[in-house]
From TrEMBL:
Organism (species): Colobus angolensis palliatus
Family: Belongs to the class-III pyridoxal-phosphate-dependent aminotransferase family.
Signal sequence segment: none
Cofactor: pyridoxal 5'-phosphate
Pfam families with a match to the protein in the record: Aminotran_3
Identification of the protein by name: 5-phosphohydroxy-L-lysine phospho-lyase
One term of GO molecular function: transaminase activity
Record SUPFAM superfamilies: PLP-dependent transferases
Length: 123
């Protein structure tokens, strides 16, 4: 995490230089610089409050204490992706499969539908 907060202009300049253009910003003409979030709200660098209906947090909100605690406990053990064999992913898939009909019991665990990890920088 950044120790000092950059200005919006500095952050935008660095993003344009370092982040692929295929990773698009919302409101590119005047992007909102979000600096923190709590519950269902996000806050910009001026302190303006926005209700978050986009970031896949509507079900629990940002910084939910149970989610933060569970993530902290898991990160103390292992923080990796699904490309390594590990019990947690199959344990979770098994629990999830018990709630669904058989035809829906093949799982793809992803963090988002946005972005493309295969795109080249600057494209």
């Amino acid at each position: 995490m950044a120790a000092d907060q950059r200005s919006k202009a500095d952050t935008l300049a660095l993003r344009q230089r370092l982040i692929s253009s295929s990773c698009r910003l919302f409101f590119p003409e005047d992007p909102v610089k979000i600096v923190r979030a709590q519950g269902q709200y996000m806050y910009d660098e001026q302190g303006a409050e926005y209700i978050d209906c986009i970031n896949n947090v509507a079900h629990v909100g940002h910084c939910h204490p149970l989610v933060v605690r569970a993530a902290h406990e898991q990160n103390q053990v292992l923080n990796t992706n699904s490309r390594y064999l590990h019990d947690n992913i199959v344990d979770y898939a098994q629990r999830l499969s018990e709630t669904l009909p058989e035809p829906l019991c093949v799982f793809y665990f992803l963090n988002s539908g946005w972005g493309n990890s295969n795109s080249k920088k600057g494209t």
